[in-house]
């Protein structure tokens, strides 16, 4: 028997929805059943521009889409300030929720979303695509290998891109009433998530914002960073920015090995991705080179990572329709990421003091 095909509704026509609509089309267990905008004209234009299936329904309001019994799940690419309202309403309408990141303005709002999903028995997952690339699971094996990698000691991550003037002036990610977390929520979400991934989702003891964040005139963060400290001495740093050249790096250093990659958010190629590792390396006698050079690991992917994400989400929804419980690891990971973002904001407001993480 084939997988249950899940009917998706797209709640909003943001630019990222173009990428995810393609992903839904590519995923073998998903289909686009409808798209909604605040105007029927915009929704219809989105459907035409993105070659949605001819039987996909067009809605001039989000409420209409959520009221359609033929839609199993919704993808929500709305501004962060609207997530609480529409994710909760979707859950109450028994729609499973694939929610763009950052998932909420703060952890308190996210807790309300998580509770609504739990009460109504619907799956919640955030839209962090790189987590679903097959490369990510293979990296996990290396990081868990006590012989090759040892114990994690340090992680450094960076996600930045040089936004153009139109973005910096008018994009929703620089407007306090739409996406108040700015670069921290948009790009920082990835860096924090990568750190937690390397730390096997163990929360740090404290988070300290780095001095020198950059804000726009409306007070939204355009660039910032932070350091994280664990009780066992692990340390991590991340930087996120709308103002510097495109960079997507992870470096994880253990007692015996190191992992590097330079395209963790968006792979250089859709169907192939790589990372490098080295274990127990040293310097030659006259310091002319390395003993045991880093090795490159190349992983092929049948589907783009965003389609892998949709496929996994649809699989979970199909399992729930067949009697399984919701998968809690995804909202749990989202919440841990959100807690660290909250701590960074608090640390900035307190003059860069360390902020203790309380889960």
TrEMBL record:
Domain GFO/IDH/MocA-like oxidoreductase: 145-259
Family (UniProt): Belongs to the Gfo/Idh/MocA family.
GO molecular function: nucleotide binding
Domain Gfo/Idh/MocA-like oxidoreductase N-terminal: 7-125
InterPro entries: Gfo/Idh/MocA-like_OxRdtase_N, GFO_IDH_MocA-like_dom, NAD(P)-bd_dom_sf
Pfam family membership, one: GFO_IDH_MocA
Lineage start: Eukaryota, Viridiplantae, Streptophyta, Embryophyta, Tracheophyta
Natural source organism: Cephalotus follicularis
Protein's recorded name: GFO_IDH_MocA domain-containing protein/GFO_IDH_MocA_C domain-containing protein
Top-level taxon of origin: Eukaryota
